[in-house]
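A reminder from the course coordinator: this example appears on the midterm review sheet, so study it carefully.

Given structure:
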């Protein structure tokens, strides 16, 4: 036992010496001036400084911005041509697939005017927070809506593409009374979006978007493939984007959308409210020629968003420009070619028989 005490006593004697050495070293380190690479001198270093010319590297985000705006504008122009010339629906579906590939999977669904609605509403209170890319992507589809209605919804939107491509061929109609009540929900979402961003509670459209896991998963897969092609190496394990509740929400949305086409577009999307309002006051719109229409109601049963409904007297059919997403289904299905596109001035004229030559604005195609 005495030996143990003697050993401990010797170790305690060494301890103060170690502390003194550490204090001396620490004091010396503090006293020394910190290393500054800018003050290093020498002939070679000075020659390098004299010959150095700063290089400007283009920002990748700006290059992507130009590409995104160009793609959206190009798809809008292409969609306008497809709709106005009454091309087959499968052509529009092919364009929607391309829009889904680029905007949804390659770009991860983040290049979306629907989410940009929250950004722009936030910018009304703080303009410095609006980016040029966000503002351009928000305004371009709205401008297109003035000339071709909700062409963005029917031919460009990646959210609309998922819903249209993954829905039954024969849509199931929502009861008219319930449908009219549900049409108020997007307006409520738009007002709630403004309130949440101004209160600093986040971007409501992005939180309500059920298709985010699909887009993020596709984006992760594209990035993994790009890394493998560029460097020959990629993450060996499969990356799952999104939480279990998010994937459950996606599954529920896909199941509901299979039976009720474009359920998110019709009853949730706040951007659709703005597009619909501009479509109503726009320069061109779809209308039903009452003289040519025989009330077969094929267009009523085939419209995926129930934009065509019988009038209150039941004698005519009415087409809502606010709801119409320009998918072209009604023009394709109408055997009398009574779905016309007119100027608003023409729609105010007296109801007179339409010459047969004017009914060929949308020639029949199969």
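Designed residues:
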């Amino acid at each position: 036992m005495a030996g143990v005490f003697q050993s401990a006593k010797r170790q305690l004697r060494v301890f103060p010496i170690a502390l003194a050495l550490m204090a001396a070293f620490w004091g010396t380190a503090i006293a020394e001036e910190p290393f500054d690479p800018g003050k290093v001198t020498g002939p070679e270093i000075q020659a390098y400084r004299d010959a150095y010319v700063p290089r400007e590297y283009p920002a990748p985000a700006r290059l992507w911005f130009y590409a995104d705006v160009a793609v959206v504008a190009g798809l809008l122009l292409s969609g306008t041509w497809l709709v106005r010339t009454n091309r087959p629906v499968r052509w529009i579906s092919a364009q929607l697939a391309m829009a889904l590939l680029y905007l949804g999977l390659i770009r991860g669904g983040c290049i979306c005017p629907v989410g940009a609605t929250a950004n722009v509403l936030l910018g009304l209170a703080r303009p410095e927070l609006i980016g040029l890319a966000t503002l351009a992507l928000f305004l371009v589809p709205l401008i297109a809506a003035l000339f071709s209605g909700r062409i963005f919804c029917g031919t460009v939107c990646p959210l609309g593409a998922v819903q249209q491509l993954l829905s039954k061929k024969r849509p199931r109609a929502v009861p008219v009374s319930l449908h009219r009540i549900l049409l108020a929900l997007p307006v409520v979402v738009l007002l709630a979006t403004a309130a949440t961003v101004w209160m600093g509670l986040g971007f409501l459209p992005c939180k309500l978007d059920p298709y985010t896991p699909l887009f993020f998963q596709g984006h992760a897969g594209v990035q993994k493939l790009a890394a493998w092609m560029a460097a020959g190496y990629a993450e060996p394990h499969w990356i799952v984007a999104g939480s279990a509740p998010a994937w459950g929400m996606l599954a529920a949305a896909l199941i509901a959308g299979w039976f009720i086409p474009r359920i998110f577009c019709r009853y949730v999307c706040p951007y659709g409210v703005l597009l619909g309002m501009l479509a109503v006051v726009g320069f061109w719109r779809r209308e039903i020629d009452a003289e040519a229409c025989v009330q077969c109601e094929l267009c009523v049963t085939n419209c995926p968003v129930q934009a065509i409904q019988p009038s209150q007297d039941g004698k005519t059919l009415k087409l809502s420009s606010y709801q119409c997403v320009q998918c072209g289904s009604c023009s394709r299905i109408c055997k009398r070619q009574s779905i016309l596109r007119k100027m608003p001035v023409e729609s105010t004229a007296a109801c007179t028989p339409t010459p047969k030559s004017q009914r060929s604005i949308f020639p029949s195609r199969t």
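Residues 60-277 form one domain. Residues 2-31 form the longest helix (30 residues).
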